[in-house]
Amino acid sequence: MSTNTNKKDKNNADMTAQDRQNIYNTSSFFKKKNEDAIEFLKKHPIPKEYIRK
């Protein structure tokens, strides 16, 4: 599955950060991964000594 949905056939390296962020935000695959990560962090929070660094 390709995440490059750019109609201009740009290489991912040629895309701006905002273009890549737009693809990420509209992708159902990444939305699901983000939800999974949030649920994981709720169950297994990051220790405070790592957050401070």
Description:
By secondary structure, the protein is mostly helical. The protein has three helices and no strands. It has helices spanning 17-26, 28-43, 48-51. It is elongated. 0% of the residues are buried.
Strand content: under 5%
- By secondary-structure content and strand pairing, the structural class works out as mainly alpha
Whole-number mean pLDDT: 82
- Helicity range: 55-70%
Give the biggest beta sheet: none
Low-confidence stretches: none
Q: Briefly, what is this?
A:
With 53 residues, the chain is mainly alpha-helical. The chain has helices spanning 17-26, 28-43, 48-51.
Key terms for this structure?
53 residues, 3 helices, 0% strand, mainly alpha
Q: Mind sketching the topology for me?
A:
Layout: H1 17-26, H2 28-43, H3 48-51
